[in-house]
């Protein structure tokens, strides 16, 4: 019986002692004192009581067992909001007055002297060294190359010259003012037109023959007979060329007078002087052209077509209207 009491005393559990609301203190033999945040206490011999966090109901227990991250106690490195680095403003150019921008550069002393010298030169009267005659109707220009056409000087007009030449232009003096004409149309002697019998070009049959007149219009025949009678030394002509498409030769409205040198220029000028009587509309000679529509411009230069024949150095080309001559 004593053995039974002893056995009961050994298995008797001590009564838990309440420390505070929801917390008890349990003495377990062979184990440390444990505080359990539960409504009741259970002790097992030789075992350390374990708590289930998921079943804890005490606010104090949750507060104690909730681990606080150590990062929470570290001082923040971002004490102030970071701002993007700003670049220093570029220095601005000092303001410039508007009137200075439009101001012309101050000329150098040499420039002033040069302009003064040029002004003095233009004001001086032109120095005349002699006189010449126009060999044909020629254009009178205010300046060489890029000047303004002022008028047309008739063939045989006497002009004063200064001897100054710029390119193809020669300086002349008209009414005390410097002007310019093409140098090739000036000569030392006055040109003389050959006299015309009975006051008009002859229309007699040519002694050299009239075979070239086949297929020519009335005006082209007039030109042939007038030239062969006025310039009997010329014996070769070119007339109708049916295969020459686009040319007056294919329609019988053109004649080629085969000649070279100064005689060619003389014939061309004579035909131009008698253009109305012969019904002439165009002349080409020595890479130059003259037309009725632009007669006030005189002889005009043509582009280089290559070769004497293509550039009309070996013949005078005459185009006619057809039958408008008065002979």
Give the radius of gyration.
62 Å
Oligomer: single chain
What's the pLDDT, averaged over the residues?
76
Strands, total number: 16
Largest sheet: 6 strands, antiparallel
Low-confidence stretches: 30-44, 53-57
- The count of helical stretches stands at 7
- The geometry reads as elongated
- The count of domains is 3
What's the helical proportion of residues?
10-25%
Q: What is the strand content?
A: 15-25%
N to C succession of SSEs: HEEEHHHEEEEEEEHEEHHEEEE
- Structural class by SSE content: alpha+beta
Q: Alpha-carbon distance between the termini?
A: 184 Å
Strand ordering within the main sheet: 11-12-16-13-14-15
Plain-language structure description:
With 327 residues, the chain is α+β, with helices and mostly antiparallel strands. Helix content is 20%, strand content 22%. The strands form four sheets. The chain has a six-stranded antiparallel beta sheet. A five-stranded antiparallel beta sheet has the order 9-8-7-4-10, with no helix packed on it.
Which secondary structure elements does this structure contain, and how are they paired or packed?
Blueprint: H1 2-10, E1 17-20, E2 23-26, E3 34-36, H2 59-65, H3 98-101, H4 109-123, E4 130-134, E5 138-141, E6 149-153, E7 158-166, E8 169-174, E9 177-182, E10 186-187, H5 218-230, E11 237-238, E12 254-258, H6 261-273, H7 275-278, E13 280-285, E14 288-291, E15 300-301, E16 315-320
Antiparallel strand pairs: 1-2, 2-3, 4-7, 4-10, 5-6, 7-8, 8-9, 11-12, 12-16, 13-14, 13-16, 14-15
């Amino acid at each position: 019986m004593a053995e039974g009491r002893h056995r009961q005393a050994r298995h008797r559990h001590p009564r838990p002692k309440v420390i505070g609301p929801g917390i008890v203190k349990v003495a377990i033999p062979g184990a440390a004192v444990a505080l359990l945040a539960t409504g009741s206490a259970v002790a097992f011999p030789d075992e350390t009581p374990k708590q289930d966090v998921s079943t804890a109901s005490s606010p104090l227990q949750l507060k104690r067992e909730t681990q606080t991250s150590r990062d929470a106690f570290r001082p923040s490195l971002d004490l102030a909001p970071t701002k993007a680095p700003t670049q220093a403003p570029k220095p601005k150019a000092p303001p410039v007055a508007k009137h200075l921008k439009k101001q012309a550069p101050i000329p150098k002393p040499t420039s002033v002297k040069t302009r003064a010298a040029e002004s003095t030169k233009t004001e001086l009267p032109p120095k005349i060294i002699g006189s010449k005659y126009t060999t044909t109707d020629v254009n009178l220009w205010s300046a060489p190359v890029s000047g303004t056409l002022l008028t047309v000087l008739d063939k045989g007009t006497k002009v004063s010259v200064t001897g100054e030449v710029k390119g193809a232009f020669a300086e002349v003096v008209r009414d005390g003012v410097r002007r310019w004409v093409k140098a090739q149309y000036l000569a030392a002697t006055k040109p003389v037109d050959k006299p015309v019998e009975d006051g008009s070009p002859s229309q007699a049959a040519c002694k050299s023959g009239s075979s070239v007149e086949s297929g020519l219009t009335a005006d082209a025949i007039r030109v042939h007979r007038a030239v062969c009678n006025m310039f009997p030394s010329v014996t070769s002509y070119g007339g109708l060329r049916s295969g020459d498409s686009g040319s007056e030769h294919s329609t019988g409205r053109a004649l080629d007078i085969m000649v070279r040198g100064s005689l060619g220029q003389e014939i061309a000028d004579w035909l131009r002087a008698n253009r109305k009587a012969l019904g002439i509309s165009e002349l080409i000679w020595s890479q130059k052209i003259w037309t009725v529509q632009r007669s006030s411009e005189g002889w005009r230069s043509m582009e280089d077509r290559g070769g004497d024949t293509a550039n009309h150095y070996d013949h005078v080309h005459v185009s006619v209207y057809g039958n408008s001559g008065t002979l």
